[in-house]
Amino acid sequence: MKVYTRTGDEGQTSVIGGRVSKDDQQVEAYGTIDELNSYVGQAVSLMEGEVFADLRGNLLEIQHELFDCGSDLAFVKLSESRYKVGAEMVERLERWMDAYEEENPELERFILPGGTLLSSTLHVCRTVCRRAERRVVTLGQAKEINPEVRRYLNRLSDYFFVIARTANVRSQVPDIEYIRSKKVFRNQK
């Protein structure tokens, strides 16, 4: 099987039910989700040992769900019966975050992305996820989309923030506080 088809040489690409320009908002949205998925794969490759086995398993599941998000956005015309992303996926992310947040020290100030290479990579995932969410919001203003994709990406970026901190905790590396910040967070536990 050849990977190249030459069908996109004129700047068009196939979506489910038709063809659109390669810079269409729809392609930009699911393309950014694909970029995010690549960074998630990079994060998974940095998770060595049993200390990260649970996070590795979660991220592998998330990679499949990111494909589901892209699939839900790749239709010319959507119908709810074909949606893959649902509210239960968002709820599961919330449960995971609640559990991992128990491992993390309380936040008092904003933190800088960093610490370990794994934590830094998870912060990249967080920021690319936010960009993907913005692209999906833009797309949703232009056409009907599965609203659960937007909710999922919103929650997923929070999840990446939480586990970036967990990765530092498990590696015994402190978060880097933003030193110009006053105490902005109250005890939430």
Automatic annotation (TrEMBL):
<comment type="pathway">
    <text>Cofactor biosynthesis; adenosylcobalamin biosynthesis; adenosylcobalamin from cob(II)yrinate a,c-diamide: step 2/7.</text>
</comment>
<feature type="domain" description="Cobalamin adenosyltransferase-like">
    <location>
        <begin position="3"/>
        <end position="167"/>
    </location>
</feature>
<dbReference type="GO" id="GO:0005524">
    <property type="term" value="F:ATP binding"/>
</dbReference>
<keyword id="KW-0547">Nucleotide-binding</keyword>
<comment type="similarity">
    <text>Belongs to the Cob(I)alamin adenosyltransferase family.</text>
</comment>
<dbReference type="InterPro" id="IPR029499">
    <property type="entry name" value="PduO-typ"/>
</dbReference>
<comment type="subunit">
    <text>Homotrimer.</text>
</comment>
<dbReference type="Pfam" id="PF01923">
    <property type="entry name" value="Cob_adeno_trans"/>
</dbReference>
<dbReference type="GO" id="GO:0008817">
    <property type="term" value="F:corrinoid adenosyltransferase activity"/>
</dbReference>
<keyword id="KW-0067">ATP-binding</keyword>
<keyword id="KW-0808">Transferase</keyword>
<dbReference type="InterPro" id="IPR036451">
    <property type="entry name" value="CblAdoTrfase-like_sf"/>
</dbReference>
<keyword id="KW-0169">Cobalamin biosynthesis</keyword>
<dbReference type="InterPro" id="IPR016030">
    <property type="entry name" value="CblAdoTrfase-like"/>
</dbReference>
<dbReference type="GO" id="GO:0009236">
    <property type="term" value="P:cobalamin biosynthetic process"/>
</dbReference>
<protein>
    <recommendedName>
        <fullName>Corrinoid adenosyltransferase</fullName>
        <ecNumber>2.5.1.17</ecNumber>
    </recommendedName>
</protein>
